[in-house]
Amino acid sequence: MxxxxxxxMMTFANPIIYEISLRxxxxxxxxxxxxxxxxxxxxxxxxxxxLRNLGVDYVWLMGLWQLGNYGLQFDKDHSSEYKSNLPDFTxxxxxxxxxxxxxxVCNSQVGTDADIIELKKKLNAVGLKLMLDFVPNxxxxxxxxxxxxxxxxxxxxxxxxxxxxxxxxxxxxxAYGSDQYSGYWKDTAQWNYWNEETRTYLRxxxxxxxxxxxxxxxxMAMVILNDLFYNKWKTQLxxxxxxxxxxxxxxxxxxxxxxxxxxxIFLAEVYWSKEQDLINLGFDYVxxxxxxxxxxxxxxxxxxxxxxxxxxNVTKYIINQYAQHSNHFVENHDEPxxxxxFSGKDYIANAAAMLSYTLPGAKFINHGQLEGYSNRLDVHxxxxxxxxxxxxxxxxxxxxLPIISKNAFKKGTWTRLTAEGDQAxxxxxxxxxxxxxxxxxxxxxxxxSGYTKVKVPDASGVSQTILELxxxxxxxxxxxxxxxxxxxxxxxGWNGQIFKYQ
Length: 502
Hints:
Layout: E1 16-21, H1 22-33, H2 45-54, E2 58-62, E3 65-67, H3 69-77, E4 101-106, H4 113-125, E5 129-134, E6 138-140, H5 145-148, E7 176-177, E8 185-190, H6 196-212, E9 215-218, H7 226-239, H8 249-260, E10 265-268, H9 275-280, E11 285-287, H10 289-295, H11 300-312, H12 314-319, E12 326-328, H13 338-341, H14 346-357, E13 362-366, H15 391-404, H16 407-411, E14 413-417, E15 419-420, E16 427-434, E17 437-444, E18 450-454, E19 463-468, E20 473-478, H17 479-484, E21 487-491, E22 495-501
Parallel strand pairs: 1-2, 1-13, 2-5, 5-9, 9-10, 10-11, 11-12, 12-13
Antiparallel strand pairs: 3-4, 6-8, 7-8, 14-16, 15-18, 16-17, 17-22, 18-21, 19-20, 19-22
């Protein structure tokens, strides 16, 4: 049976977003080219052109903003934990957390705001877009605003006198950054989102970033939602008489930013089932970690429950158009490498990527993922442990990325199809169509090869050569047979085939 609902027949942008950890990348390029590459202006532009040629739409330069000495020293003082990721670690490898931002100006070690704007112009000229960070929840401990605008931060209740509890407060009584489920991040200071002056300042930051970029990745975007924020900081807010704001920060911040730059997109790192809330507030894309974690169980039936709900879960996926706002990934800088997450097997990680990246929504790729790296790059460090990676993954992504860059995936309509036969449980099948471009995806997300038939309702009723795009192999098939009886395919375990047909 073919399940098609007209509400899903819509146009998708489905961008490919590539995350680069900027300062480690500069270090990596220095080794590659045998000369110092420490500034934005030093980066050989062919590195960006290579990504564009692969089909990347947005380059997220993670860790571009100004950091302070406090965070760097804090990380050096806690350096013992880095050896698990980098066995040959030295103190020179510590570069400081990119999420302890003193000010939203370009890190002076890598350039200036003018350099960012100039880079954006160059990227845009070749069809690439620039994405930057916005870290909304907290500043660095040594941000100048911690002393100059202390009321912009969460502070100890007035009846609590110094010395303050240093497990939760700075010496001046400003709270360390945190959220309702975490401990305190002691290199950060917590913004007070129930203070309108704080909101005004941070909205100005969002608007500045919107002027300098084509997109914003917003760190832990859900933690500043009014109710969640109050859950964490109730004692301090009540003690100082702050009242719940009449609206959410994101609704006005995004609206104002898009008045300045209508084409800027907002990507939310989000968990705790708050994805739809952020979509409703204006986010273009939200992390879809639920699919990743389900894929990692390697339980095909559980994965099918999610992909089937693209048609059947009316509340989440159709009325609210959740699917088109999803950001699919198999790794990022917070997650284990995909190869590690998927049982240490590059071919399983690649199968998960093919399944994720052929669904509606944004496709997110992490620095080092295309090389099949296993060793994690800690955000506090300038390098990961050296490895060769996976040639299998390199070949896989070299084939896949140009495919998912085709118009059918970018502008087309997505329809879930039904795999038939005794081994149908192994398979996922759907198609993308845009005008005359028609592409069928059949993925075996299980151990061992399998056979299935998939009926292709819009196949032309003629004998035709269908092209399997991953391998480049062509097969002559009868269009009427594909339409009425189904296209028969044999697919190896943890693998997939993507066909272009008429």
